[in-house]
């Protein structure tokens, strides 16, 4: 233990991860659905990435942004995998202080990237519908890859101060977390010192990323809807809206669980700890599971790309 100003004010050497409170005896059985979810996530998103990389017909802005979305969802899942499987499969409930901060940084950085990629995808859909003739000229390859680089760099820069702000706080012996992984809203309740700076900076991150992104997504779809309503033919309106269906599903899959988790953290002091754990799992596991399925079914190009990939493998066999 690292002593601070008193024997009680110390940084814990380890944190205790609870998993799902009240179901500790069932953890080995609960590892099965978690393993299945990870298989679906890595297989589904890996397939999307492979199809877009190998199919030249999919080297278009819409699908390159989809590849970014799949990549960050793999990143989120890979960040949670060590502790989740450690708890449910091997009964390992401890994580070192530094490893916990690293996992928190990784999970939240990838989550911010995911939100930003969803915004970029909404802008892509607006440009495609509002100005289809200039679509390829506006969303060039350098701009797309530059956007991806800015998203990744900005997310990590925004998250970098949070671990340092947590390290300066006394924890006074509190080291039990209510999830299977380290999240900032959970960690920030443990210190016994003044957390006002942490709260202010955390609020700044939320408003400047998730809040701003969601607002701009709503504005983008307002402009899309206005543009679609000005299309003269019903068939043209239907075709334009159909190109947005998969993205709307991805936005809902991301923001609905996140809002639910935020509400539980803010106002659910008397809510069952198991509900906290379930909401956190829904926030982190639902989008990377559902998005590859939605795009594989609703996007004809992705669907055809997967069929072509499977046909080639079948032919080789």
Radius of gyration: 22 Å
Largest sheet: 3 strands, mixed
Whole-number average pLDDT?
86
Helix content range? over 70%
> Going across the major beta sheet, what is the strand order?
4-3-5
Number of alpha- plus pi-helical segments: 12
H and E string: EEEHHEHHHHEHHHHHH
Give the overall silhouette: globular
End-to-end C-alpha gap? 58 Å
Which band does the percent of strand residues land in? under 5%
Low-confidence segments, ≥5 residues, pLDDT <50?
Answer: 1-8
Total DSSP E strands: 5
Find the structural class using helix and strand composition: mainly alpha
Fold blueprint:
Blueprint: E1 2-3, E2 10-11, E3 14-17, H1 27-54, H2 61-90, E4 94-96, H3 97-130, H4 135-138, H5 141-159, H6 161-167, E5 176-177, H7 184-187, H8 196-229, H9 234-242, H10 245-267, H11 273-298, H12 300-316
Parallel strand pairs: 3-5
Antiparallel strand pairs: 1-2, 3-4
Helix pairs in contact: 1-2, 1-11, 1-12, 2-3, 2-11, 3-5, 3-8, 3-10, 10-11, 11-12
